[in-house]
Amino acid sequence: MRYSLGFGKTKIEFDINQKNIYKELVPNKIEDTEEILKGAAEVKRAMENPYGSPRLRNIVKKGEKVVIVTSDITRPMPSKIVLPIVVDELNEAGIPDEDVTVVFALGSHRGHTEDEKRYIVGDEIYNRIRCIDSDTKDYVFLGYTKSNNTPVYIFREVAEADRRICLGNIEYHYFAGYSGGAKAIMPGVSTRDAIQQNHSRMVEDGARAGNIKTNPVRQDIDEVANFVPIDFIVNVVLNEKKEIIKAVAGHYIKAHRAGCSFLDSMYKVKIGKGADIVIVSPGGYPKDINLYQAQKALDNAKHAVRKGGIIILAASCKEGLGEKVFERWMLNAKSPQDMMENIQKNFELGGHKAAAIAMVLQNADIYLVSELEDDFVRDIFMKPFKDVQSALCKAYEVLGKDSDVILMPYGGSTLPYVEED
């Protein structure tokens, strides 16, 4: 059968025998007797029915300065759909456009061009509202968290605003459990030192995708809101077409957890066993813009492959590795084991994703289908291929032509887990 996966802004196709396919991991069907709203209509519904909070219009007051924190260009968050709805409600409450600032939560990522800012928010908002990147050099120190003694350094524009509204999309995060919620603040508008301290807990057992109750990283993140209050959130869950299928609004914990529960019902998929071969795509642009972002899909795929198996990762990586420290760790390591030992001795933000890839390589080979140069891919301990077909043929050659295959077309969103007897 002919099969296609998202690859950059296009598709990459290959042939696979039906008898080899053990499972295709796609979102669960959500059964709902009510009419399912999507897109802007669903966002409006959520804002009219907030969790654990008054409506936004009843929170803000005329004369207050409002900051809306939203995702940067590496995230699939559809800000251009959500922002106009949020701004309209602020206007209805007496907040004029000039008292609103949109802040792009860069975390440790690069800054945006003006064209990228316009692309993220859309022409209407860009022309009406001041839109700026967070700046790790302009911050306010607010104290330390109890959970991990993490320093709370917050971008000044956010820390000094009268009201803070956080936007985001909810998907699985390989050590914070889930994205969304207070993650817009930590790591979104925090400094590199603060992010590094928080992320250092990724090596603990509870720091894994789909876990939130006992997740030390998430506990630390949520505690930051005690220092810089989050007045309202609007989070969305996207389907495989990147459409808004669910929106939650209101209290930064209660609304977020409701969104996480919906995500589980949609994207947490049971499998009976690990497969010999897993073919995974992050889902295309922007999730595969670089390896730093594509790593999320790779980390989910590790739960679907057997020990000694092969993961075929189809990710454009048009912008290379995507982060300087990550690149240094990947290129300077003598072996995957070297990265794992180093991260335990000297945690460094950026190096943490290299160590996560090293953990995958402990149990499976990675065949990378990308736009990167072959020698470069070999230098980062992966095997290079220009198309999935040739990678699959090589995997059959190594593991046998009868090898079973799991397909993960939305690897960054779909979390496989093995059913227990």
Task: Give the structure's gist in a few sentences.
This protein has 421 residues and is α/β, with parallel strands linked by helices.
What can you see in these coordinates?
- With 421 residues, the protein is of the alpha/beta class.
- A six-stranded parallel beta sheet has the order 3-19-15-16-17-18, with helices on both faces. Strands 6-5-4-9-12-13 form a six-stranded mixed beta sheet, with helices on both faces. Strands 1-2 form a two-stranded antiparallel sheet.
- Strand 15 (275-280), helix 9 (291-301) and strand 16 (305-314) form a beta-alpha-beta unit.
- The chain has 14 helices and 20 strands.
Widest sheet: strand order? 3-19-15-16-17-18
Largest sheet: 6 strands, parallel
**What is the average per-residue confidence, as pLDDT, rounded to a whole number?**
93
Overall, the morphology is globular
**Low-confidence runs:** none
Specify the structural class.
alpha/beta
Radius of gyration from the alpha-carbon trace, in angstroms: 21 Å
Helix residue percentage? 25-40%
Topology:
Layout: E1 2-7, E2 10-15, E3 21-24, H1 39-48, E4 66-71, H2 79-92, E5 100-105, H3 114-121, H4 123-128, E6 130-133, E7 139-144, E8 151-155, H5 156-159, E9 163-169, E10 172-173, E11 177-178, H6 192-199, H7 216-223, E12 232-238, E13 244-250, H8 254-267, E14 268-271, E15 275-280, H9 291-301, E16 305-314, H10 324-332, H11 336-345, H12 351-361, E17 364-369, H13 374-379, E18 383-385, H14 388-399, E19 405-408, E20 415-418
Parallel strand pairs: 3-19, 4-5, 4-9, 5-6, 9-12, 14-20, 15-16, 15-19, 16-17, 17-18
Antiparallel strand pairs: 1-2, 7-8, 10-11, 12-13
